[in-house]
Specification:
Elements: E1 4-14, E2 23-39, E3 43-50, H1 64-75, E4 82-88, H2 99-114, H3 121-136, H4 144-149, E5 152-158, E6 161-166, E7 173-179, H5 185-190, H6 198-217, H7 220-226, H8 233-236, H9 243-252, E8 257-260, E9 267-271, H10 274-290, E10 295-301, E11 308-309
Parallel strand pairs: 3-4
Antiparallel strand pairs: 1-2, 1-11, 2-4, 2-5, 5-6, 7-9, 7-10, 8-9
Bound molecules: L-homoserine (HSE).
Length: about 300
């Protein structure tokens, strides 16, 4: 039995434009790392957090990694176990890239590894959703499910939970740009309408079905023309500097489709290759620099593995 483990869990692009709370995919970078050790002293302690600029709670009941590790231990009947945790944030907080999800998933995968993989990654999803509830007030699964399972994921239903791993074109790449303005998911959720018109719902579910069909059919054009969101993007894009200009730059540089990653402010484009994705991130970062906004960029294939043991 292992006494310690170091785990990486990936960032994720949730919603994928039209699929608010029901679609997401994992990327190879960025992501978070958790080191977890078994100790003789009962209880879960959070020893340190790095890379968060002091923004995350060190209280083990408030931090998602330790709070959810506790719930896992209770579930497997080992509430007496002793655990020490280090969380190393390797990605920006409040970026729309599933930051809390990457931490929680790394922690859950670590503790499950230390306790002989008693649960499958799929069975860990409801625990990770509780982490999202703690972090942003609502237990959505479109970050944590792809972070745990890798790949492209559809949350067909929340009650009961029904998670479908989707196929995707193997050459599909994501170009992600994070403009360094803070948009907490909690706030970005509160600003959207809770009621929609039936005609708008028709447009939206047509696009969701179109996107899923495009993934099955390796049809890039269908994927692209389905990446339209008339329900959430019009409101949330207000928080993203020059959103429409960024979209135009991405599309004229060869993007298949473009939109907000999760609750933003990160934006992403899907492309058919890494070269186009790199060209897009350069163009977008250049524009953001011109309007005095710092940014980070990531180019990645769709991550197929989910969390991995580093050590
Ligand atoms: N589906 C969630 C939202 C993802 O859009 O609020 C948050 O990253």
């Amino acid at each position: 039995m292992r006494k310690s483990v170091k785990v990486f869990a990936p960032a994720t692009v949730a919603n994928v434009v039209c699929g608010f709370d029901v679609l997401g995919f994992a990327v190879n970078e960025p992501g978070d790392e958790v080191i977890m050790r078994l100790t003789d002293k009962p209880g879960v302690s959070l020893l340190k957090i790095t890379g968060d600029e002091g923004r995350l709670p060190l209280n083990p009941d408030k931090n998602t990694v330790s709070a959810i590790a506790k719930q896992y231990l209770e579930h497997i009947g080992r509430p007496d176990a002793g655990i020490e945790i280090e969380l190393h944030k390797k990605m920006p907080i409040g970026s729309g890239l599933g930051s809390s999800s990457a931490s929680t998933v790394a922690g859950l995968f670590a503790i499950n590894t230390l306790f002989d993989n008693q649960l499958t990654n799929r069975e860990l999803v409801p625990f990770a959703m509780k982490g999202e509830e703690l972090a942003c007030g609502y237990g959505h699964a479109d970050n944590v499910a792809p972070a745990l399972l890798g790949g492209f994921v559809l949350i067909r239903s929340y009650s009961p939970l029904d998670i479908i791993s989707l196929p995707f074109p193997q050459d599909l790449h994501a170009a992600i740009v994070y403009p360094e303005v803070d948009v907490p998911t909690k706030d970005a959720r509160q600003m959207i309408r809770s009621k929609v018109y039936l005609k708008d719902a028709v447009t939206q579910w047509g696009n969701v079905a179109g996107l899923v069909s495009g993934l099955f059919m390796n049809d890039y054009d269908l994927i692209g023309r389905s990446m339209t969101d008339i329900l959430v993007e019009p409101t949330r894009s207000i928080l993203i500097p020059d959103f429409e200009i960024l979209r135009a730059l991405a599309m004229e540089s060869g993007a298949i489709g473009f939109g907000i990653s999760g609750s933003g402010p990160s934006v992403f484009a899907l492309t058919k290759d890494a070269e186009t994705a790199n060209r897009i991130t350069q163009k977008l970062q250049h524009h953001l620099k011109n309007i005095a906004i710092n940014s980070l960029a990531f180019v990645s294939e769709v991550n197929k593995k989910g969390p991995v043991i580093l050590d």
